[in-house]
Design a protein that fits this description.
By secondary structure, this protein is α/β, with parallel strands linked by helices. It has two domains: about 130 residues, Alpha/Beta hydrolase fold, catalytic domain (Rossmann fold, 3-Layer(aba) Sandwich); about 45 residues, no CATH class. It contains nine helices and six strands. The chain has a six-stranded mixed β-sheet with strand order 1-2-4-3-5-6. β3, α4 and β4 form a beta-alpha-beta unit. It starts with 10 loop residues before the first helix and ends with a helix. InterPro entries: AB_hydrolase_fold, Hydrolase_4, MAG_DAG_Lipase. This is Hydrolase. It comes from Pseudomonas syringae pv. viburni.
């Protein structure tokens, strides 16, 4: 849930924390709908920070990985390459929300044993990449630029928001031959509104929440279209 953060704690403490958050959001959304909407908008585009520390920890113990950076849209994107994608067929890894490329590291030896090079990267505000916020349109744009840089992959393995985004990111000149889509995130907007209801957020907050996202070039129509196209 993007309204919560995964912090180790006892079951009782976690329940108390969620109850406190629910009560706070219920009250704030009725008294200060504008401020609450902007706060929730910011939370919606802010990945969990824990992924950054985990990415660094996994990288420290990884072998034979070539790290690099790409400057995309003014953001430094961390890349991870095993083998030589210029000479070998390669598999592109696309992580999900609040995740990171090195989360796939355990799969790399098996892919290499089958003759593939492997390419991974961290989306903005994820893993070791720059940035503090991200969202699905940006996931799509960065995927497109990574695809243009490395060329046509033999396959793509994508998870969650990465799986949803690759459907829209693929372009004719680098379209993958095969797709492995793991638990694609099909309805980000529906998920957001479901969480609002679960936390008792007043509906008059929604226009302010959407207004915050509109300012970032994110529209709920885009997410609705995502669901519509996938269903077709």
């Amino acid at each position: 849930m993007w309204l919560t953060r995964k912090i180790p704690m006892s079951k009782f403490t976690n329940t108390l924390r969620l109850m406190t958050m629910r009560g706070t959001l219920m009250l704030a959304s009725r008294i200060l709908p504008g401020l609450t909407g902007r706060y929730l908008g910011r939370r919606f585009v802010t990945p969990q920070a824990a992924g950054r520390a985990r990415a660094a920890a996994v990288l420290r113990t990884s072998q034979d990985v070539q790290t690099g950076t790409l400057e995309l849209d003014g953001i430094k994107i961390s890349t991870y390459v095993w083998g030589d994608p210029a000479q070998q067929p390669y598999v592109l890894l696309a992580h999900g929300w609040s995740s990171y490329a090195m989360r796939f590291a355990d799969w790399v030896p098996s892919l290499q044993s089958m003759g593939y090079a492997v390419v991974g990267f961290d989306q903005p505000a994820h893993g070791l990449s720059g940035g503090t916020t991200s969202h699905m349109p940006q996931f799509v744009e960065i995927l497109q630029q990574v695809g243009r840089h490395f060329g046509k992959p033999e396959a793509v393995i994508a998870h969650s928001l990465g799986a949803s985004s690759i459907v829209f990111a693929q372009e004719e000149h680098w379209r993958p031959e095969r797709f492995v889509l793991i638990a694609p995130f099909l309805a980000p907007a529906d998920n957001a509104f479901h969480q609002f209801d679960a936390f008792g957020v007043a509906h008059k907050v929604f226009p302010h929440f959407e207004g915050y996202l509109h300012a970032l070039r994110i529209t709920m129509r885009l997410f609705d279209c995502t669901c519509l196209i996938v269903r077709r």
